[in-house]
Amino acid sequence: LKLAQGKVDQFNDLEFADMKFIFNGEVRANNTISYSSPKIADGLVFNIASLLQEKVDTDASSTDDDQDGLFDVLSYSVEWQGKDLFASVSVMDNYGLDTAQKDIYQDGGKTTRAVATYKIGPVQLGAMWQEYEEQTGTDSNGDGEISDTDGMLLSVAYTFAEKHTLKLQHGQSDIKLDGGEQNYFGYDYKAAKNVTLFAVVGDQSQDADDKDKSYLAGGLKVVF
Q1: Apex CA 184: angle with CA 180 and CA 185, to 5°?
Q2: What share of the chain is helix, strand, coil (3-state, %, to 5)?
Q3: pTM to 2 decimal places
Q4: 157-167: pLDDT as tens digits
């Protein structure tokens, strides 16, 4: 699910601007078994991963309810990895909203993510939609009650004169924050093959009072 975002998040892994602050599913899980198929027809790829946890649910009525089985938590995706077009649909099933692996729950939820990025010359356009479904209880018939929240993200990056990139991103989601919203503008300068200078300005807000945050940051990124 995390890898299926592709490059739609223009501010991925920044401390304040990463989409993980309003979307779930950005999980670097431990103890996984995964398989990715070879490319089919020059672009189609299938991925599946089982997230193995080593934890007993102390609130479970029996050991049968413990989530310690081989396929209790699954993540899977279908991707198209073309030259200019990247598209994916991914699901993580029975995973809790919190991002640490220790917070995989018996009554975890289901996250569905759809992503597309497309390059038109020097411009990359990106869009993502995501939904999180969670069992919140049972009704009078004993059937599970499901609540769902969703969100969307739009991004664009424009590269000019080979070394300069302007980036703009807007995200809205109720998954992790009620009325969560992010708006960021960034500039990258590629100083060398593996060195990039960057600046970012923007804000994050939510419906709750006094929760708006504004950011201005600059940095140096070295890839090795």
Answers
A1: 170
A2: 5, 55, 40
A3: 0.87
A4: 999 999 999 99
